[in-house]
Specification:
Helix content: 25-40%
Mean pLDDT: 96
Number of strands: 16
Bound molecules: (2S)-amino(hydroxy)ethanoic acid, manganese (II) ion
Structural class: alpha+beta
Largest sheet: 9 strands, mixed
Low-confidence stretches: none
Length: 387
Amino acid sequence: GNGVTRFSYGENDEKAREFIAKAAEFKGFSVRTDSIGNMYISPAESDKTRKRIRIGSHVDTVRNGGWLDGIYGVVSGLEALRTLAEYKSDRVSEVEVVIFAEEEGSNFGSTMTGSKFAAGIYGEEALDRLKGDDGNSLREMLMKCGYPPYRKEKVMWDFSDVKAMLELHIEQGPVLEREGKSIGIVDSIFGMTTVEVTIGGVGNHAGATPMRYRQDALTTAALCISEAERIAKADPEGILVATVGKVAVSPNCSNVIPEKVVFTVEVRDKQEGKIKGAIKEIEEVIAKISEQRGTACGIQVLAESKPFRMDERMIQLINKSAAEAGISHQIMDSGAVHDICVIAPHIPSGMIFVPSIGGRSHVPFEDTDPDDLVRGAQLLLDTVLNI
Ligand code: HGY
Ligand code: MN
Ligand code: MN
């Protein structure tokens, strides 16, 4: 009823990883977790002389999210590895499954955190910069969970060791279902920028303070939030999206004029220039509204990732595998971001989508037809064999 809440470094995350590690070890695979929580499943006899094909995704979720987002790609990767081992394929020694930590950013507001450490976008400084709502840093969270001290050389990938990366994922949108297709092959992944806005007003008594004397942080924030929506809706291409999904009001009492409001604004598009332009416009309009209404305002960037066009050869290779299997498919964009878009600038990478029922995701109703789930996992394996 409440969906899945499995934040990285939390109890449910640990349970899921234990379950997957047990299933992997049962098949004789080795499991290693690095100092920021990225987990690697490799065949015991992995051949160090051969470059790796990594199959990755995440197991962490948003709050009250769905049962498939991320973990579907991880479990399918494990299934591909097990199948190669069972059929004694010599390709098994190349394949590795990766679980990236903190992809959703549910703890620290930064999406794709584990893959950003793996790709070297984040380093030691991020351990202290990234802070949760409780003010604790990622470093403190890792220490509390018993992770060993951060070692960059053990976390960052040596991309010369990796031949390709694949990610299988639910579409999380309505396109495949509406087009009646079973498989999506991702062409480009949107970029995104997430900013945190703080509006500082003057807290006061809700009854004794006349309207003309108020500096209400929440009504100011409400105007700013509707302006962010207006700016996104004004995109003539109808592609740019802006979302305010998280708002904290203090002191959050019905009889106190709000003193402070902190909210996130995330903006996404296929083009980096449009994202930058929209963020600039939103920041300017927030500053103007705040000044007009006598409140203070501060804005900081929490996270950003560039739009990325996937490797053409990988797109064609997945296309060929899908056509050979006689599966209806189409090439499409991804409005959702994924770990692979952080890895893709360094090695040939491909992403496969399966349809989401009702186009819903990040909600308890997230679901996909079992036949589609199996088709996606089979195509993942076929693609590995064709690389
Ligand atoms: O927000 C996203 O696009 C992804 O689900 N983290
Ligand atoms: Mn997600
Ligand atoms: Mn995901």
